[in-house]
Design a protein that fits this description.
The chain has about 120 residues and is an alpha/beta fold. It has helices spanning about 15-25, 65-75, 95-100, and strands at about 5-10, 30-35, 50-55, 75-80, 100-105, 120-125.
């Protein structure tokens, strides 16, 4: 390997089992730990050089505990890579986009009071 010690932390036993299967198939070393991202008490403070936080922030009602725990376990000078979903992706009728290639607003963003200017249809190529 590249010399990194990798830990996968997930609340899904099925996901962790899949990770172990791939690890065994490719003869890699990986530690899997089951738990929720708002409680990283399984890990010591300042114990990781890198945290990769995929687009999972949409699964928690409050993101601050997640960021606080990540900051706690990240070494001073460490890096956190986070994937963030732009809320705009939830506004359109995805079925209509996929089937007819028509972009149409289906849901209003919660912080936007006036949606009239977005109500029309648009086509893209």
């Amino acid at each position: 390997g590249a010399g990194a010690r990798v830990t996968v932390f997930d609340n899904s036993p099925r996901q962790l089992e899949g990770d172990r299967t791939v690890t065994q198939k490719h003869k890699l070393e990986l530690t899997t730990v089951e738990g929720g991202m708002r409680d990283l008490s399984a890990f010591q403070s300042e114990s990781y050089d890198l945290i990769f936080h995929p687009v999972t922030n949409i699964f928690v009602p409050e993101i601050r505990p997640v960021w606080s725990e990540a900051f706690r376990v990240l070494k001073h000078g460490g890096t956190m890579l986070a994937g963030i979903v732009n809320p705009i992706m939830y506004t359109f009728d995805n079925k209509l986009v996929d089937e007819q290639r028509v972009i149409q607003v289906k849901y209003a963003l919660p912080f936007r009071h006036n949606q009239h200017h977005l109500a029309g249809k648009a086509r893209y190529r």
